[in-house]
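Side project, low priority. Logging it here so it doesn't get lost.
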Amino acid sequence: MLNDTSKNNDPSYANIDEMVRCRFGARSLRNFPKVNAKRIEGGANRSQLKGRGMDFSEVRAYHPGDDARHIDWRVTAKTQKPHTKIYTEEKEKPIYVITDLRPSMFFGRNTLKSVTACHVSATLAWAGLLNDDRAGGIVFSEDDHEETKPKKSSRSVLKIIRSLQEFSGNLSRSYKKDTQIEHPYKMIEMLSEIRKIISPGCSIFIISDFIDLSDDCDKCMFELAKVCNVNLCHVFDSFEAELPLGGALGVGKGSDRMNLHTGNNSMREKYKNVFNYRINKLSELRDKLSAGLISIETNGNYLNTLALHFGAGRSKHKGI
């Protein structure tokens, strides 16, 4: 049964009903990144493990130990050397949707980064299930996380959605109370925790603003890329990319408020450089890890952005 808070239209946290409806938009996301499946179960993804299966893969020279029943007699007769047919088995891959709902995500002009991240996460989880894969997730708050183990069931996606609603609601309440956590999660600690949880051969989507992504995170990212297919979903607000010209911009957290004078060119340049560093760092990781990278602006149409990468007419090139 859904929480009563699902009826609440408070824009400060994700609405359960809206995340459930994300399954309709997910139907267009049928081209997920290909990953080598490790688990022998039915699914829509082909494994690179060669063996007896439903789909023909190739003909190659016979090796000692090959199944004699798969000898290709036509090619063998033509080349005068024994050749065998190789088949691939269809196997499923687990999908892990990992959502960062730490305090920096509670920011945005019209739509909060945290709310956008929840909708993106719900859509990807539904898409994984519709792609005949097991869908699971991990939701991070400032000092806690909750895992939903991958299952080929809508109940698994609904559990992820409930976690997203709960954590985004807690984020909203903690912001209003202006509470301080003594040892908050850092990005590097998040990545380390992810590596402990995920299983080899899965495909992961990390949805975050990556605000504290640094060179120290590289090792953790490389460790993840060794065992799974990594996709980085960068959620940002246009105010983070560049401040508006002139005037005073009111900003704050809880009871702490201040006016940011955006006419100072030096300050504007430093502000812009911080965002550009993050973009360059993500692009660098994309290239080094052969990872997917998607950039999603809070006031844009996130579903259109996802469709560009995972829809039927997606581009073959990775990037923002």
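Brief comment: The radius of gyration is 23 Å.
Revisit when time allows.
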